[in-house]
Structure formats: C-alpha cells, structure tokens
Amino acid sequence: MTGTSQIRKSNVISQSYDFQGKFYPWLKEAISCYKTSLDSMRQRYYIGAMTNAQERKAQERQARRRRIQEAARTVFTERGYAGASIELIARAAQLSVGAIYLYFRSKEDLYVSLIEDTLMVFDVEMAQLRERTEVSQRLRESWNTLVRWAERDPEGPRILRLLAQPAIRPQLSDEVVAAVSTGINRVQDHIGACVADGIHAGIYRQVNAREIADLAWSALLGSLGAAEMQVNLGLDGEPLVERTGRALALIESALAPAVSGSLRAVA
After folding, report:
1. Which pLDDT score, from 0 to 100, does residue 231 have?
2. Which domains does the chain have, with CATH numbers?
3. Measured in Å, how far apart are the chain's first and last C-alpha atoms?
4. What's the CA gap between 266 and 206, in Å, rounded?
5. pLDDT value of residue 24
6. Which of 2, 48, 56, 188 is least enclosed by beta carbons within 10 angstroms?
7. From CA 39, how far away is CA 41, in angstroms rounded?
C-alpha cells in the first residue's frame, strides 16, 4: 500500500508540474498582454489629457491677447499713437503693466499687432473677389477694397507706415512680425494673381505679375500717406478715392497691350 501510495503521489505531483508548466507561461503572457493594453490605454489617456490642457492654455492665452488688443484699439483711437501708453492700455484691459509685457514687447509691438486681423480678412475677401469678379475688373476691385478700408480705418495705413521707420524692428516681437509679414505678402499675392489673370486672358501685356503687385502696393501706401499729409497740413487736395484712382489708372494704362515702352518709364 505504501508503495502504491507513493506511486500515486508521484503521479499527482508529476501532473501538477505538467499543469504548472503549461498554465503559468500562459498566465504570465496573459498578464503581460493585459498590462501592455492597460499601459497603452493609460498612455492615450495621459496624452489626451496633456493635449487638452495645452489647447486650453493656448486658447486662454489667445483670448487674453485679444482682450489686450481690443483695449489698445480703444486707447489708440481715443488718444492717438503718441498719447497712448502701456499704462493706459493696461488700465483699460484691467490687467497689470507686467501682464501686457508678457504678450507684447512694446507699445509699437502692440500697435502693429492691431492690423493682424485686418490682413487675415483681406486674404479671405480678395480670394472670394477673384472667384466672383470678371477678370478685367479683378485688379480694380482688389484695389478698391484696400481704399475703402483706408477710408473706414485711418489707423490701419498709419500702422503700415510705422513699419517703414528705420528703428522699428527691435521694438517688434517675432510673433507680430511673422503675422504681419505673412498678411502683407498674402495681399500682394492676391494683387499679383489678379494681374496674372489679366495676362492669361490677354487683357494685360506680358509683365512680371509680382513686380506689378509690389509697385501697386507701394503706390497705394504712397497715395494714402500723401493724402494724410495734406490733411495734417491743412492743404487743399483731391479726395482719397480720386487720388488713389489716378494711381491705379496709371498702372492699368501701363499694363494695357497697346502701350509701348517700359512700365518703369511710366512709373
């Protein structure tokens, strides 16, 4: 009996070891898979939480930046560029002066930033204008869009003219410079596209469309600056629409196929 018991016991132990040898590796693998799956789920959760937090932070920053810009717009309108100060803007925005400098490098930086949204609107409007306007009228309608803006918002052209000041760049943040530069380039791109459309349609002669866009932009800013100078000095002068319209007429006449000679001579 004792021998039989030992044999049975040995068989049981042997079966137990066989079971453990087959079951434990499977169990270990199952736990490992579960842990890997759980870690992946946790990872996605944490990444999602971090992304949401970063997005909220970016949205909050953008909202506060716009709040400062709106306060600044009011102060600049009421007091003019020279009479405005960061202290007055901070008071209007109900923020500390230090908070303003977290978003803008200087008064100049804040002032120039006010044209960012305008340039973005131009980008959309001028793209839509090309889609709905006859080729022969695209350049003129784009030009008139800018002139109407100048009449409606005199502060806008002043901001652009400030950018021509020799010592302005150190006062501006990279963020504002990038946004405004991109916006201006997009406006010039649309003007150039209108010229290119006219060339392809045979309305304009073969010229460098981008050079014409640069010329048109410069002529427009020059016309706006000359008009304001006359007003400031109390001099009699033609209305803004007539002055800018005459500048555009010169450009269009130089683009006409029948015109001989160089555009440079006309300019």
Report:
1. 87
2. 2-93 (no CATH), 106-266 (1.10.357.10)
3. 122
4. 16
5. 58
6. 2
7. 5
Instruction: Return d(Cα 45, Cα 48) in angstroms, integer.
Output: 5
Choose among 95, 39, 34, 41: nearest CA to 68: 95
Q: Around 232, how many Cα atoms within 13 Å sit in the side-chain half-sphere?
A: 7
More confident of the two residues 189 and 13 = 189
- The number of residues making up the chain comes to 267
Structural contact between residues 198 and 216, judged by C-beta atoms closer than 8 angstroms: no
Q: Does position 13 have pLDDT exceeding 50, yes or no?
A: no
Q: Indicate the SS3 state at residue 167.
A: coil
DSSP 171: G
Runs of H (alpha helix) within the chain: 2-83, 86-93, 97-101, 107-113, 116-132, 135-152, 155-162, 174-200, 209-233, 240-255, 263-266
Tell me the average pLDDT of the chain: 85
Sign of the CA dihedral with 12 first, then 17, 21, and 26 last:
positive
Residue 58's pLDDT is 86
Q: Are 113 and 182 in contact (CB under 8 A)?
A: no
Quote the crossing angle between the two packed helices 135-152 and 155-162, to the nearest 10°.
100
43: Cα separation from own chain's centroid: 33
pLDDT tens for 176-220 read 999 999 999 999 999 999 999 999 999 999 999 999 999 999 999
Per-residue confidence (pLDDT) for residue 237, from 0 to 100: 80
CA-closest candidate to residue 72, choices 51, 54, 95, 49: 95
